[in-house]
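Example record

One chain of 380 residues, shown exactly as stored in the release files.
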Amino acid sequence: MKTTDFLTHRRQFVQRLSLGLGAAFLGLPLLSEARPQGRKLGIALVGLGGYSKGQLAPALQETKNCYLAGIVTGSPEKVPEWRQKYNIPEKNVYSYETFDQIKDNPAIDIVYVVLPNALHAEYVVRAAKAGKHVICEKPMATSAADCRRMIEACRTAGKKLSIGYRLHFDPHNLEMMRLGQQKVFGPVKKLESDNGFTMGKNERPWRIQKKLSGGGPLMDMGIYSVQGVIYTKGALPVSVTANYPKETRPEQFNEVEESINWQFKFADGSTADCRTSYTESMSRLRAEAANGWFELQPAFGYGGLKGETSKGKMDKQNVNQQARQMDDFATCILQNKPTRVPGEMGLRDVQLLEAIYRAADTGKAVSTKDIVQILDHVNK
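Predicted structure tokens for this chain:
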């Protein structure tokens, strides 16, 4: 799809959401409604934008423990293609207006919320009230208060909540966790991470509309660096300082930051220098330790990741990160065990994002002592 077409569809999608219009879906012939053999869990994707179309739906063709069972969209023109391509029964298709009826559909076990950031809280809460387990895309929400509301809704409903942190299931990033947390090269002394992309000058997607995104590249790309330095270090920062670099496109980024730099400080004196931008393409995660170094570059993409250490290249396979992520969550449900990327981790990161913005806005160091104390520890 051309960029202009994508933006037009996205703009129409956002307008439908904001106006609360229902969708009268086309009456197509009913396809097979039988569930796959075995104990696969059915997932419904909420929002059929680029990530659902390009990554999640294809990944669900490779999963072993779950499958694409349904869709929720405000764009009725998308329905025929999705139904035909993925053999989705008519009864498993919902609009945002009919979303709550999903509670009566036993074919759908998990709802995956893939909407603009500001809509995450509403649909996670509604999914939990409908009795469904939930995966929510990152960032979890646009405020820590909304994160807590989402966690409480799932807890009250007795349903599991996971955040779409796909890199916790990627071999390259898992190796960064292992090398850092197990101090293979000694204690980590310094970390660096950059993540961003160059947005077209004429684009105005929801990502730079503060009401929908909650912020600029920090909320979108920077959160990967927040995550990366924490799971590599195996510790949480105690404070943060930050600043906004000089803008180069003030007319385009008039609601959110164009770029932002920040530094985490850890209790042992080590630091993590990070930056993110919508006007620079970059993807890197590096750790310098007492007896060597290790890094990924590119570090955060859907594939093509490469790693190297002071002893040589990492011999790790690129995998379908989304398939592994969703399969893991389905396993957690089937075996009634905790997910390694729970809602509390999403809350922690939103608290950190808020702290970074406060530091940049005030020009002062901001304490992070009150953030949720949760880490993803690699197996020994």
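Notes: The chain has ten helices and 15 strands.
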